[in-house]
Design a protein that fits this description.
- The chain is α/β, with parallel strands linked by helices.
- The protein has helices at residues 22-30, 76-89, 153-169, 173-183, 185-188, 256-263; strands at residues 15-19, 34-35, 51-57, 60-68, 95-98, 102-104, 117-120, 129-131, 135-138, 141-144, 241-244, 246-248, 268-270.
- The longest helix is centred in the middle third of the chain and has 17 residues, at 153-169.
- The protein starts with 14 loop residues before the first strand and ends with a strand.
- The model has no long low-confidence stretch (mean pLDDT 86).
């Protein structure tokens, strides 16, 4: 017998979650502890398609509205459009989250590897996100202009509490992923392509920034091992959590040299160009 989904009024949702890509949205939906029925109504100008549900937290349930971007539409403008349209249909939303795949920016200070998690947090002059393509071109080069606001105080307090919990009790991510794989087996072993699991150290190889990969394959099986950066093996495969600045723009950066030039102590670049 089909399960009847709970249907709430749109005013019951306080968290908005935007994912740029379909597989990012799939991961977001898999995090819902309960799924809700579609929204009772949407604003006339709202083109988003929503997945609704709730996530259990230490202080109760959080009702979440999830939306994604249209295929082939990436960058800050489509994200802003999706957020504005979401607010038009869900006026009680207090927090907006942009969650997705990022390109790590490893450095001597930050050992970021495949599968790690980066959470934006105010650091230095940045509020947690740095839009590095916002500014003006001058005779002396490009000058960045404008600083994005930091997250609300209540979210910053939550980040601090999570950091403390991680230090004493470790991360809950492995347990969450295990539960996800049991609930959605196809996410662990899909019909095609990689699953939502750690891909292994063979796919987590770091090369010198000035090395140009000679083939168009998805892996580095034929790349020059002499140009590979030697990194100490981790004691386990569980993801590490990093806190700091995330770089954002309307570009997708696939050049490690350019990545290093614009990084300025950032931890990752949003791969979707958002």
């Amino acid at each position: 017998m089909a399960q009847t989904l709970l249907q709430l009024d749109n005013s019951g949702y306080a968290v908005g979650w935007i994912a740029a890509l379909p597989h990012e949205r799939a991961a977001a939906e898999a995090m819902l502890d309960k799924k809700h029925a579609p929204p009772q109504h949407k604003h006339t100008n709202d083109d988003n398609i929503y997945s609704l549900g709730s996530i259990n937290g230490s202080n109760g349930e959080h009702n979440v509205a999830i939306a994604s971007l249209p295929p082939g539409r990436h960058g800050t403008t489509p994200v802003a459009t999706a957020a504005v349209q979401m607010l038009s249909s869900f006026p009680a939303i207090k927090f907006g989250l942009m969650v997705g795949i990022g390109g790590g920016i490893p450095s001597d200070d930050n050992d970021i590897r495949l599968g790690d998690v980066v959470i934006s947090k105010p650091e230095g002059t940045f509020g947690g996100v740095r839009q590095y393509d916002c500014g003006k071109a001058t005779i002396h080069g490009f000058e960045e202009r404008g600083i994005l606001n930091p997250p609300p105080r209540v979210l910053l307090n939550s980040i601090g509490a999570l950091e403390s919990k991680y230090e004493t009790s470790g991360s809950a991510i492995p347990t969450i992923l295990e539960a996800m794989h049991k609930r959605y087996p196809l996410m662990a072993k899909p019909r095609k392509g990689p699953g939502y699991i750690y891909q292994g150290t063979n796919y987590d190889r770091l090369f010198q920034s000035d090395y140009e990969h000679k083939n168009s394959k998805r892996d580095c099986g034929e790349c020059d091992v002499a140009k590979e950066v030697d990194r100490q093996e981790r004691s386990d495969q569980d993801p590490y959590i990093h806190y700091g600045t995330i770089a954002s723009s309307n570009q997708v950066i696939k050049d490690a040299r350019k990545r290093d030039l614009i990084s300025k102590n950032c931890l990752c670049l949003l791969e979707s160009g958002t």
